[in-house]
Amino acid sequence: MCLICNETVAIVKSGNVKRHYDSKHGHFDHNYPLKSEHKKPFSDSEIVKECMNEIAIALFEGTQKDDIIQKINQISLFDSTAVKRTEVLAEDLLDQMKSAIKKAKCISLALDESTDNTDNAQLLVFVRFFDEEKGEFCEDVLGLTALHGHTRGDDIYEALIQMLRDREIDLKHVISIATDGAPCMTGRERGLVARLRAHHPDLIAYHCIIHQMVLCASLEEKYAEVMTTVMRLVNFLRASSALQHCLLRSFLTEVNAEFDDLLLHNNVRWLSKGKVLERFWTLRKELETFLLDQKSAKAKQFVEFMQNEEKMEIVAFLSDITSHLNDLNMKLQGKNNTVCNLTSAVCAFQKKLELFKCDLQQDLLHFPKLLNQTAGTHHHHNHAEFLDKLIKNFQTRFGDFPLGKQVLLCMENPFLVKNIAEFSTEALKICPWASAASLQSELIELQENLALQESLCDPTTFWTKMVPAAGVPSLQKVALQILTMFPSTYCCESAFSTMNMVKNKYRSTLSNEHLHQCLRLALTPFMPKFKELVAQKRCHFSH
Predict the structure, then answer these.
(1) For a surface tag, which of 31, 251, 522, 525 has the fewest beta carbons within 10 Å of its beta carbon?
(2) Per residue in 111-123, is it b (16+ CB within 10 Å) or e — as a string?
(3) CB 274 within 8 A of CB 325
């Protein structure tokens, strides 16, 4: 019986089984490749052998069972073997990436620094480029290197330059770099960007769009005070006593509440604030009832807070606005996004903020929790001031973004660009090598191409496959550079989560080199060349 589709073959011969697999499951190896992408310890390989032996004992009988078990036991799956295979696969994937980068016309970088589970500082660098062979943009781990001692701009600069040398990459080949905006990255004199621009003046450097959006939403004055009180209340119920937490969960279950627990706030997590507020607001009636039964002084203070209509109005407003901010944050997250996608989402949200400001004075259509709390009556607070500050923060942080509106419009739909002179001016700011006259002429020629006007596809497909490079070479080169730019450091943040899964408290002795190799196997878009690697090796049976 086939273990994939449960079908049976007429006669169990190797030829029949192979024919069945090739004809019906030829895609299986491609869809389910055997890579070390499950982030498991090297020693777990022996568990696979134990499982295979148990399966053989259960499925087979007689001499056939003995032969199969003997062959399974000959498979070498020791932890040392798993380490060597990981090293070989990681080296092969690294060579493939280096080969693809050499063929790319330009690359962009995204980097961030964090600590692993043993408090070692790790610098993670991602690279994005257009892969000519695959015909698509590729995002891969350029490298992970440990920063011993300090994590100053000079230290990060030296580590990055050494990484580029090891990968045989010229700094002039890098067109842009996205960072988290930390002082060690953006310092005027000794920051990473300043050091890089001393050797590469045309380098485009910018703050991660998601990080900037989160900073725009920082709370002040009475809103920060109410938010702090809510967090203290949640911590009191959840973290001050194990018994109290247990009683709370039992109470919420007994009263058939929508949720059986509260969420703890984590400043590092982008969506935490909004989710904590939303859960608190949903359970507010049950929480007030539970607190009324408590005899402590703190519980009485929190009851007074929850019975204060002005305070709860602020909670309702914060829950509504953080819900909108979380929706924007979710749109900005994800792999293989372009700068155009994220910038469009931010611009749309800025216009929504103007709409929200007007809605506060009218029907509260976009503030359902605030409407529920106030019952449509007069507000105790002027929340429009909060929105004014939010609008100003977005304008300040995104007003000096290196890509202008006409350039972004051209990337999304070049046929809608009307001010061609302004477009060329904006394009020269990020591509100083280009000629304004050539860009203007090529854009006009492209706009008059009737065949391209009828094409319906995304910007990446349009500029990389539909637009003929011979006809508009300068314009296509500008488009390729813009589409190559990292819009955020999301890939780094996501990879750090993977890093903490790989190097957890049970694998704390994992070396930096092996951590890098495991991370590459887990995150790379490339596929190891298994057949070539196997052909180069000699089989050694396990004894």
Answers:
(1) 31
(2) bbbbebbeeebbb
(3) yes
Q: What gap in Å lies between CA 392 and CA 350, rounded to an integer?
A: 10
Structure tokens at 222: 């009475």
DSSP 173: G
Q: Cα dihedral sign for 92, 98, 101, 103?
A: negative
> Does 77 score more than 80 pLDDT?
no
The yes-or-no verdict on residue 137 having pLDDT over 80 is yes
* % of the chain beyond a pLDDT of 70: 91
Q: What's the Cα-to-Cα distance from 54 to each of 3, 72, 75, 518, rounded to whole Å?
A: 15, 11, 15, 29
Spatial neighbors of 392 by CB under 8 A, at least 6 apart, are none
284 closest CA partner among 244, 246, 257: 257
Straight-line distance from the first to the last Cα atom of the chain, in angstroms, rounded to the nearest whole number: 30
CB 322 within 8 A of CB 366: no
Contact status, residue 425 vs residue 451, Cβ threshold 8 Å: no
- 182: tokens are 């930390």
Residue 207 β-bridge partners: 179
Question: Phi/psi of residue 293, each to 5°?
Answer: -85, -10
Q: Count other C-beta atoms under 10 Å from residue 53's C-beta.
A: 14
In this prediction, residue 296 has a pLDDT band, given cuts at 50, 70 and 90, of confident
416 CB neighbour count, 10 Å cutoff:
10
Q: Are strands 204-207 and 121-131 parallel, antiparallel or unpaired?
A: unpaired
Residue 62: which region, alpha, beta or left (left: phi > 0; alpha: psi -120 to 50)?
Answer: left
The label of the residue with tokens 């989402």 reads 345
How far from the centroid of its chain's Cα atoms is residue 114's Cα? 15
CA 96 to mean position of chain CA atoms? 23
Task: Judge whether 143 and 163 are in contact, CB under 8 Å.
Answer: yes
pLDDT value of position 34: 45
Structural contact between residues 167 and 98, judged by C-beta atoms closer than 8 angstroms: yes
6 pLDDT above the threshold of 80: no
* pLDDT (average), residues 526-540: 81
Q: pLDDT tens-digit profile of 240-256?
A: 888 888 988 898 898 88
Burial (Cβ within 10 Å: 0-12, 13-18, ≥19) of residue 154: middle
Rounded Cα gap, residues 453 and 441, in angstroms: 17
What is the structure's pLDDT at 32? 46
Tokens of 325: 């901010």
Mean pLDDT of 126-148: 92
Position 499 scores a pLDDT of 92
Phi then psi dihedrals of residue 249, to 5 deg: -65, -40
Q: How many beta carbons lie within 10 A of that of residue 237, not counting itself?
A: 24
Two structure tokens written together for 189: 């004199």
Q: How far is it, in rounded angstroms, from Cα 271 to Cα 108?
A: 27
